[in-house]
């Protein structure tokens, strides 16, 4: 575990008194049984000034939340996979404009859903190939099987997601082999739809590099950055640090999801899913975030050039396309990008970027203020306002 040294908030322009508002608010979420436990962290100018634990990481064992707890980060895996792709981009192994079919010829045969009638589905040819940039920006036309279009959703659930959940030690090839047989929801590059695109990117890392995806991440990203607890499974010696994941039943009682004794995350063969498969700690993920804020370098280790990080963290969506109804937020190459704080109706800076995970983990980076924010929870679904509250309460404590 990488230790975290704390500095006084005032030394980096934050008020200790005002930060207490944040701590009190997060603690109320625990006291009100919104969550079982939580961690919150913040760093400015490469110095961590806030690290707080709340509640329990295991209710049945009466184990308090630990600062070194291991979390299922789900879709916070996606930015890491995106960095891996950009590292191959920098090495000249691929172009963002490359067609996916260049590496996986079966994608030459993909079709696009034009119309679904009661008894008929109309498919058409794509106007152009899916590119790697389309995958990075979730504009490929792929889905998670949650589009509300029954024909496509049924195919995703039966051909892909069922294997994800029932055979969690499947290879990337086995998980994704049916993907090119499912129609795209829209023409490539014309709309944003969150999807399995990043899982496909992980498979492309493996195909293009010739190295198993999990090995590539470990040898090229995790080991150089000292991310010692980030992996696709939890080894036996670290199980006591693995936080429980919860939902609430109809009576408001916490019920454990993915019980630890039978968790697929304890299996070394757990599918190395580039969109959702990693576990990590606050200490590790803060190092990854600091690498990004430093524009590709940390402690003398450079994984990306500043220009590549800048390209990743600007909006790439077509004009008029946003990821939120207010039109405040775009999407870069692996991250959401804040375009208009006024439309978001929250505190923040233009250019903030970050992402979250299905179990209520969330991070963002503010390049303008040299500020990092990380909130780790294990609760599903992630439909609460906790990230918004944490963000606003953190910014209100910044006094310079």
Q: Termini distance?
A: 32 Å
* Mean of all residue-level pLDDT scores: 96
CATH topology grouping of the largest domain:
Beta-lactamase
Under CATH at level 1, the class of the largest domain stands as Alpha Beta
Total domain units: 2
Helix fraction by DSSP (H/I, runs of at least 4): 25-40%
The helix tally amounts to 11
- Percent of residues in β-strands: 15-25%
Structure description:
There is one protein chain. With 400 residues, the chain is of the alpha+beta class. It folds into two domains: 252 residues, 3-Layer(aba) Sandwich (Beta-lactamase), CATH 3.40.710.10; 131 residues, Beta-lactamase (3-Layer(aba) Sandwich). It is built from eleven helices and 16 strands.
Blueprint (SSEs and pairs):
Layout: H1 16-31, E1 37-44, E2 47-58, E3 63-64, E4 71-72, H2 77-90, E5 112-116, E6 121-124, H3 132-136, H4 150-166, H5 172-176, H6 197-209, H7 213-225, E7 245-248, E8 254-257, E9 279-280, H8 282-293, E10 297-298, E11 301-302, H9 306-312, E12 329-331, E13 336-338, H10 341-344, E14 353-356, E15 362-366, E16 371-376, H11 386-396
Antiparallel strand pairs: 1-2, 1-16, 2-3, 4-9, 5-6, 7-8, 10-11, 12-13, 13-14, 14-15, 15-16
Helix pairs in contact: 1-11, 2-6
Give me some keywords for this one:
11 helices; Beta-lactamase; 400 residues; alpha+beta; 8-stranded antiparallel sheet; 16 strands; two-stranded antiparallel sheet
């Amino acid at each position: 575990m990488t230790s975290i040294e704390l500095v006084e908030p005032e030394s980096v322009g934050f008020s200790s008194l005002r930060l207490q508002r944040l701590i009190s608010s997060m603690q109320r979420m625990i006291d009100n049984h919104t969550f079982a436990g939580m961690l919150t962290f913040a760093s400015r100018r490469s110095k961590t000034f806030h690290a707080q634990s709340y509640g329990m990481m295991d209710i049945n064992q009466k184990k308090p939340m630990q600062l070194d707890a291991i979390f299922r980060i789900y879709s916070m895996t996606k930015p890491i996979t995106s960095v891996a792709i950009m590292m191959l981009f920098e090495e000249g192994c691929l172009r963002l404009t490359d067609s996916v079919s260049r590496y996986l010829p079966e994608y030459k045969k993909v079709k696009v859903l034009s119309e679904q009638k009661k008894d008929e589905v109309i498919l058409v040819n794509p106007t152009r190939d899916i590119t790697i940039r389309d995958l990075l920006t979730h504009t490929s036309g792929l889905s998670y099987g949650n589009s509300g279009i029954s024909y496509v959703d049924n195919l995703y659930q039966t051909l892909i997601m069922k294997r994800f959940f029932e055979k969690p030690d499947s290879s990337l090839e086995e998980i994704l082999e049916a993907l090119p047989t499912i129609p795209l929801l829209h023409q490539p590059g014309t709309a944003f739809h969150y999807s399995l695109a990043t899982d496909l990117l992980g498979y492309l890392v493996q195909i293009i590099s010739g190295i198993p995806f999990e090995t590539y991440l470990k040898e090229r990203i995790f080991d150089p950055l000292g991310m010692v607890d980030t992996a696709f499974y939890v080894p036996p010696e670290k199980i006591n640090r693995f936080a429980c994941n919860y939902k609430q039943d109809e009576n408001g009682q916490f019920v454990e999801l993915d019980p630890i004794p039978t968790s697929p995350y304890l299996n070394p063969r757990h599918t190395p899913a580039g969109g959702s498969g990693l576990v990590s700690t606050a200490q590790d993920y803060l190092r990854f975030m600091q690498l990004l804020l430093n524009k590709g370098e940390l402690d003398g280790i450079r994984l990306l050039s500043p220009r590549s990080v800048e390209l990743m963290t600007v909006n790439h969506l077509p004009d008029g396309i946003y990821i939120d109804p207010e039109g405040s937020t775009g999407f870069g190459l692996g991250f959401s990008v804040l375009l208009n704080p006024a439309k978001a109706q929250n505190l923040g800076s233009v250019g903030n970027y970050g992402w979250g995970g299905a179990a209520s983990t969330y991070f963002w980076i503010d390049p303008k203020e040299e500020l990092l924010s990380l909130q780790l929870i294990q609760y599903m679904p992630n439909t609460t306002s906790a990230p918004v509250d944490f963000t606003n309460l953190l910014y209100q404590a910044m006094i310079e």
